[in-house]
# Entry
Amino acid sequence: MTDQAESLRSAIRERAFREPADSRSASARVVAVASGKGGVGKSNITVNLAITLASAGKRVVVIDADFGLANIEILLGVVPEYSLRDVCAGRADIRMALTEGPLGARFISGGSGFSGGPGMGDAARNKVIQSFMFLDRTADIIIIDTGAGISENVVGVLAAAGETVVVTTPEPTSVADAYGLIKAACAADPGRRPDFSVFVNRAEDAREARGVYERLDRASRRFLSMPLRLIGWAPNDPNVARAVKRRQAAAIAYPDTAFTRAVRSAAMDMIGQSAPERGGLAGFISKLFG
Ligand SMILES: Nc1ncnc2c1ncn2[C@@H]1O[C@H](COP(=O)(O)OP(=O)(O)O)[C@@H](O)[C@H]1O
Ligand SMILES: [Mg+2]
# Structure
């Protein structure tokens, strides 16, 4: 325990030491993309959000934290040499695991069989902490694609992240699971002012998307005293599956298709919103591992 705390403190000290005072507050924004139910479009939204933000000049790093499922690399058609798993095992440096994707967006594969979070040993944990601090110097926005569901790992990431985009489809099961996830993340950190936004994917039209958002927002205000924001919605778009089959991001293969336009608008919304005061990456790490 003391070991961890000390390594975290020294990592933060190191960062403070290396950076000029005026840039110190500009810590990377940590955005989690999550869903209750699986298969709702999280990974596609993550990848295309990242590419759009990168093309807008942001330094973006995606972390594929849907461990074992290696989604991001398949969607991008890029084979990473090393993963977060190798970093934890001491087989690679974080720089070696940072893999170049389209338009300068970079990503880090989780690696199959990796399990982070509370079950992690001290040595692995310290490596991850130090690795993450390095990311603070090289990224403006870190997007974490989490696994579906309400596992301890996912909830831990959401409670620590500065902001979370919850993805749901209009299906009642997906909406119910999205609410369950928001509730679990709030329960994990009762003292905070969380920043949750909703992305409604595969809706019939704007009206259906708004209805889904309003249902979630109403429940969240009433039972969790927390308003939600609608960050965007996308219709069913056959070009998403086509892009996946081509192993290209929709934003690259179909820059003008409805899904790409929807994600672009969500990215612009994200840039327009100032980052919540959650201490950036250092805050994320101390909450996740502290
Ligand atoms: N807006 C959309 N329109 C049509 N198909 C979509 C859309 N969004 C996602 N999909 C499809 O849904 C499937 C699951 O998407 P994915 O991003 O892997 O979900 P998750 O990461 O939540 O499991 C993919 O096969 C993808 O092609
Ligand atoms: Mg996925």
Remarks:
- Residues 42-43, 66, 71 surround magnesium ion (ligand 2) (CB under 6 Å).
- The two ends are 9 Å apart (CA to CA).
- The chain has 13 helices and eight strands.
- The beta strands are 29-34, 60-65, 98-100, 106-108, 141-146, 163-168, 196-203, 229-235.
